[in-house]
């Protein structure tokens, strides 16, 4: 189990607080709602931070907005759920699946 597994629930809004994870420092089972690792004593919340994509400030894992610039992390997650389709010929982008590109008339199927 790697850091990717630890953070996989972070962008789902459920932060994985009740799920058992491994401490990256010692490998002990932890949850993100613990203050410290019971084995090595590392501060869980201070070890894991969320970096703002706009200003690069480090924020708490469960922060909804950046403490420096106010960037909305939840809006970022909502934007990431949207699927876009791009024409390989002209680059036209759409959120709807189309069988033909409305710009260059390329058939997709």
Task: Describe the protein in words.
This protein has three helices and six strands; from the N terminus they run αββαββαββ. With 109 residues, the chain is an alpha+beta fold. It folds into two domains: 3-71, no CATH class; 80-109, no CATH class. The chain has a two-stranded antiparallel sheet with strand order 1-2. Strands 3-4 form a two-stranded antiparallel sheet. Mean pLDDT is 78; it is low at 9-16.
List the topology elements.
Layout: H1 3-7, E1 21-22, E2 29-30, H2 44-47, E3 49-51, E4 58-60, H3 73-81, E5 85-86, E6 93-94
Q: Nutshell version of this structure?
A:
This protein is α+β, with helices and mostly antiparallel strands and 109 residues long. Helix content is 17%, strand content 13%.
Classify the oligomer: single chain
- What's the helix count? 3
Outline the biggest β-sheet. 2 strands, antiparallel
Low-confidence stretches: 9-16
What percent of the residues sit in helical stretches (DSSP H or I)?
10-25%
**Beta-strand percentage range:** 5-15%
Tally of distinct domains: 2
Q: Could you say which overall geometry the principal axes of the C-alpha atoms support? A: elongated
Strand order of the largest sheet: 1-2
**Structural category:** alpha+beta
N-C termini distance: 40 Å
Q: What is the residue-averaged pLDDT?
A: 78
Number of β-strand runs: 6
| H/E element sequence | HEEHEEHEE
Features:
13% strand, 2 domains, 109 residues, two-stranded antiparallel ribbon, alpha+beta, 6 strands
